[in-house]
Specification:
With 478 residues, this protein is α+β, with helices and mostly antiparallel strands. Strands 1-2-3-5-4 form a five-stranded mixed beta sheet, covered by helices on one side.
């Protein structure tokens, strides 16, 4: 087990014991009539925390020795490996003169300064082994000098002298002394590791004792905690039932209110269409008659007024033109209020005429396509579909920056679906068919009042699509 893991385990144990002590205090503070249990629980928890805290302090002190010993072991192992590589390269080069043997020697010698620097850092915090560290460092200097002398002799072509220096035993003596120092240094830190293991074993024993005490207390408190938990659960169940009943009541109220609003919206829309039809009839009957009579009178004056001054005759001609514009305006207003094409020729012809009107204004090409040969839908459904198509195309002209729009009508035996698409700039925020403008809200209310559905889908830069689906025969109004 690594030192970091041991320290983490000890801290985690201490934290859990602290939280358990707070839990016991909270539980027995709520349970009345058990005053004798609360001091006992607090005392046991406090004792457990004291034992855990004392054990943690001991572990923390021992952990420093453990980490230091691991560092020493790691560095001495690195020294041994570097010395083996360097000695192998030095001997190989001395015996053969082959420069390839110098590569491992050079690499090993290059690693030694970093290792020696780390050993020097460790020596500053270890009074017990400081002298040994100095001896190890001095022997390393002597050994490196010895090896370099032999390598220099071989490089100068005096291999026999280099071998004689090696056979003199000086290098072996330095190496033996260095190995002895490192072995003694390792033994010091092995004893530290042994002490840490003993402290760890004692700490585990203390933890077992603490856990045993806590288990005994937990078993004793279980009945009281269970009783309190049952009381809490019963209270929660009562509250949950009350909340569910209130939620159901509110949902019913919302559904009823929504239905009332939908019916009201449908009634207002029907009343609006009826009022439009009435106004259109009055415009046709009253204003139309006045305009027609005025136009006929002006035409008679023009025919009979050949001897009139030219200025007066021009005024009469202009008045006739103004009256003709008034007649055309009256027709457009009447068509907007109550489209005669829809009443006389049906929904398909009305939508096709609407597309032609939009296209004739310029700036937007509109086309109409229909599928299905079922009979004409009910009047409420037909006027709703026409108004939605009219509103959708108006939105396209105002906001979409589109060049083309498509009106599609699919007529089934029970349902009629209208789709209006465009190739405009589109917009975001329509996931799930949600709408955010009053015009679109009006379309949705039309669909809901007829028992249908409405959705808007759009992707920025790819246009938008309005889908309006209603039953062929809407439900009867109350």
């Amino acid at each position: 087990m690594s030192g970091t893991a041991l320290e983490h385990l000890a801290l985690q144990l201490r934290d859990r014991l602290q939280r358990f002590g707070l839990l016991i205090e909270a539980l027995f503070g709520r349970a009345g009539g058990t005053f004798w249990v609360t001091p006992l629980a607090i005392a046991v928890a406090a004792g457990a925390l004291w034992i855990a805290d004392a054990g943690l302090d001991v572990l923390q002190r021992s952990f420093g020795d453990f980490s230091f010993a691991q560092s020493i072991a790691s560095q001495t192992r690195e020294v041994r490996l570097a010395l083996v590589d360097a000695e192998t390269g030095q001997l190989g080069y001395t015996l053969t003169g082959d420069a390839r043997y110098l590569d491992p020697y050079t690499a090993a010698v290059a690693r030694l300064p970093e290792i020696r620097s780390e050993l020097a850092r460790l020596a500053r915090s270890d009074r017990e082994g400081r002298t040994l560290f100095k001896e190890v460092d001095a022997n390393l200097d002597r050994l490196l000098i010895f090896w370099q002398v032999t390598i220099d002799l071989v490089s100068k072509g005096d291999a026999q002298r280099a071998q004689a220096v090696i056979q003199g035993g000086r290098g072996k003596a330095i190496m033996d002394e260095l190995r002895g120092d490192m072995k003694w240094l390792e033994s010091i830190h092995e004893s530290r590791l042994a002490r840490f293991q003993e402290v760890w074993r004692q700490s585990l024993l203390a933890v077992r004792i603490v856990l045993t005490l806590l288990i005994v207390v937990i078993v004793g408190l279980f009945v009281l905690v269970l009783r309190y938990a049952q009381h809490v659960l019963a209270t929660e169940r009562r509250q949950k039932r009350y909340i569910e009943e209130e939620r159901d009541r509110l949902e019913r109220a919302v559904r009823e209110r929504t239905l009332e609003l939908s019916e009201l919206a449908g009634h207002l829309q029907r009343a609006q269409e009826q009022e439009r039809s009435r106004v259109a009839r009055e415009l046709h009957d009253e204003i139309g008659a006045l305009l027609t009579a005025s136009k006929m009178t002006v035409a008679w004056l023009i025919r009979q007024g050949k001897d009139l001054p030219a200025a007066a005759r021009d005024k009469l001609v202009k008045l006739d033109a103004f009256l003709e514009q008034g007649v055309q305006l009256k027709r457009r207003v009447i068509e907007g209020l109550s489209p005669s094409v829809l009443a006389n020729l049906g929904l398909n012809a009305a939508l096709e005429d609407l597309a032609e009107q939009i296209a004739s204004t310029g700036g937007l090409r509109a086309s109409f396509r229909h599928a299905g040969t079922h009979p004409e839908p009910a009047a409420d459904s037909a006027i709703a579909i026409y108004r939605v198509a009219q509103e959708a195309l108006t939105n396209v002209q105002k906001h979409a920056r589109a060049t083309e729009a498509w009106i599609e009508l699919d007529c089934g035996p029970d349902w009629i679906e209208l789709r209006v698409r465009d190739n405009g700039q589109g917009f975001a925020g329509t996931a799930g068919g949600k709408v955010k403008t009053h015009g679109l809200h009006g379309m949705r209310h039309r669909a809901e009042s007829l028992g249908g559905t409405f959705a808007v889908t759009s992707v920025p830069g790819q246009g938008a699509r309005v889908t309006f689906r209603v039953p062929r025969t809407p439900p009867a109004a109350d």
